[in-house]
Amino acid sequence: MNDLEFKSMLDHYSELARNGINRYLPTANDRPPRLHEAMRYSLEGSGKLIRPVLVLAGNSIFPTLADPIPAAVAVECLHTYSLIHDDLPSMDDSDLRRGRATCHVQYDEATAVLAGDALLTHAFWLLADSYQDLPEIATSLIHELGDAAGSRKLIGGQMEDILGEENNYTAEQINFIHLNKTAALLTSSLMMGVYMTMANQAIYHSIRTVGHNFGLAYQIIDDVLDATSDSSTLGKTARADIVNEKNTYVKLHGLDHSRAKAKELTGAAIEHLAQLDADTTFIETLIHRLEFRLK
User: Fold this and answer.
1) SS3 for 95?
2) Nearest to 72 by CA among 187, 180, 192
3) Taking the CB of residue 97, how many other CB atoms lie within 10 A of it?
4) Which long-range contacts (CB under 8 A, 24 or more apart) does 259-266 make?
5) Other C-beta atoms within 10 Å of 152: how many?
6) Are 219 and 182 spatial neighbours (Cβ–Cβ below 8 Å)?
7) In angstroms, rounded to a whole number, what is the distance separating the alpha carbons of residues 192 and 140?
8) Smaller CB count within 10 Å for the chain: N or C?
9) Which residues, including other chains, have CB under 8 Å from residue 229's CB and lie 6 or more apart?
10) How far apart are CA 88 and CA 45, in angstroms?
11) Is this structure's pTM higher than 0.90?
């Protein structure tokens, strides 16, 4: 896939996701307006929308049985809730996210907490409401997202991340954080898109393996960028991991090994995709391009 084709498809998926966010989120005028403004403010930043794009791209691989846009919006609602809470003074205490002031800086801490709570709740309501006529698909989507976002994965990874500020972690502990805090939701984004198609169990297994490798690579790359980039380039507070004394892949393994591991995992993800009897060119290109954030 050449640059123009990739950009055109990425822009198409991103526009679908942004239009979906505008459609499926309460308006800023809904009462109480301050809460809904904060929710929309956090969702309408200049984020890359990688997770909803993965939902839409995963859904495009095989013939679909349902509209994937509500699921894509639900994933981004849940992801954004986690970012709002991660940025709070009691957590990472970040001032910048997606190139703008974080929610608690733009509004206040209480509003940010409630905006995050509301986005988390809205994600599951949206899945239940949008797919109520397709109960099997609704159940699969809710189960997948709930599993990825729960105490054993996303929230558990965040807890271990916080505890790691007081201890030197092993490679196994770093992998636990990365696989659960970041990779789990990226994997689920792909899975949720595929769940709405005519795919089978063997394909589900392959897609989950792709997500596992890609998601871990994505977080390792994030660790490298946090250590080597500035805030204007990242669109969020740079070197926050160093300031907060977090255990990262870079801290444990160094920059060269981290870059090599990200490349290895990216290659494994693309190799598994290539084995599917389907057109996965866009997803392969997306994963490859995300690795090249290191260049």
Assistant:
1) coil
2) 192
3) 26
4) 259/224, 259/294, 261/217, 261/220, 262/217, 262/220, 262/221, 262/224, 262/291, 262/294, 263/217, 263/291, 265/213, 265/214, 265/216, 265/217, 265/220, 266/213, 266/214, 266/217, 266/290, 266/291
5) 12
6) yes
7) 8
8) C
9) 238
10) 17
11) yes
Domain boundaries, the chain: 3-294
Among 131-140, 230-239, 260-269, the minimum mean pLDDT is found in 230-239
Res 236 pLDDT > 90: no
Q: Using one digit for the tens of pLDDT, what is the confidence trace for 184-235? A: 999 999 999 999 999 999 999 999 999 999 999 999 999 999 888 765 555 5
Classified as helix, coil or strand, 64 is strand
Structure confidence at residue 16 (pLDDT): 97
* DSSP-based three-state secondary structure for 131: coil
CA 22/CA 135 separation, integer angstroms: 25
3-state secondary structure 253-274: HCHHHHHHHHHHHHHHHHHHHH
- pLDDT score of 237: 57
Per DSSP, the residues of 192-256 read HHHHTBT--HHHHHHHHHHHHHHHHHHHHHHHHHHHH--HHHHTS-TTHHHHTT---HHHHH-HH
Taking only the tens place, the pLDDT of each residue in 55-80 is: 999 999 999 999 999 999 999 999 99
